[in-house]
Amino acid sequence: MTFSLAPRATPLAAVAAIHVLAVGALLHTPAVRQRLVEATPLFVEFVSAPKPRMVETSVPTPVLRAPREVQVAPPQIVIEQVAPTIAVTKAELPQSPSRPSAEPLTTAVVSAAVETPRFDLAYLRNPAPAYPSMSRRLHEQGRVMLRVRVAASGDPREVRVESSSGSERLDRAAVEAVRHWRFAPARRGGEPIDGEALVPI
């Protein structure tokens, strides 16, 4: 069997020809041609989006100031003045055989006065203890009482803490300083003897 496309192609060609003739007729119509001439072309321009405006803000430069120095008064080491202690001992007289034993004895013999050692005399020139640097930074302070055994030569033989300042550093500094001091020795009747002194710092 043989198929032929000629009968179907003829109507399509006829339709196309009709459309071409119709368009040509329209183009030759005066009204259509006038419209084509008056038509204004439309131009489209693409505008880029505006860039964001940078606003400059001035930030004030901070002024650096040196830290204010705090004036701290240097610690004071005070060696208290202690008045010499004079001990007067009384010895009872032996009872007289002619006097009744029941009668109270009122007469006494005063022995030689005993003066305790001195450390606060100007000529001794005893320096104050050194203030420990750590105690200075920690603002440690206190009062230490030292008991010193003084030889008849005026040299300290033994120094011990009678009452602490509350800081071991301050106690050690006081003991170390007093070990190198000179004392006016204790005296009995003007003669130097061994004795003890209390040194408050």
Report on the structure:
There is one protein chain. The chain has 201 residues and is an alpha+beta fold. It is built from four helices and nine strands; from the N terminus they run H-H-E-E-E-E-H-E-E-H-E-E-E. The chain has helices at residues 6-27, 30-38, 133-137, 168-178; strands at 86-87, 90-92, 108-110, 114-115, 145-150, 156-163, 186-188, 191-193, 195-200. The strands form three sheets. It has a four-stranded antiparallel beta sheet, with no helix packed on it. The longest helix is centred in the N-terminal third of the chain and has 22 residues, at 6-27. The relative contact order is 0.14. The model is unreliable at 105-110 (pLDDT under 50).
Quick structural gist:
The chain has helices at 6-27, 30-38, 133-137, 168-178, and strands at 86-87, 90-92, 108-110, 114-115, 145-150, 156-163, 186-188, 191-193, 195-200. By secondary structure, the chain is an alpha+beta fold. The longest helix is centred in the N-terminal third of the chain and has 22 residues, at 6-27.
What oligomeric state do the depicted chains represent?
single chain
Q: Can you tell me the overall shape? A: rod-shaped
- Our count of helices gives 4
**SS-based structural class?**
alpha+beta
Cα gyration radius (Å): 62 Å
Q: What order do the SSEs take from the amino end to the carboxyl end, as H and E?
A: HHEEEEHEEHEEE
Percent range for β-strand residues? 15-25%
Number of DSSP E strands: 9
The low-confidence parts are: 105-110
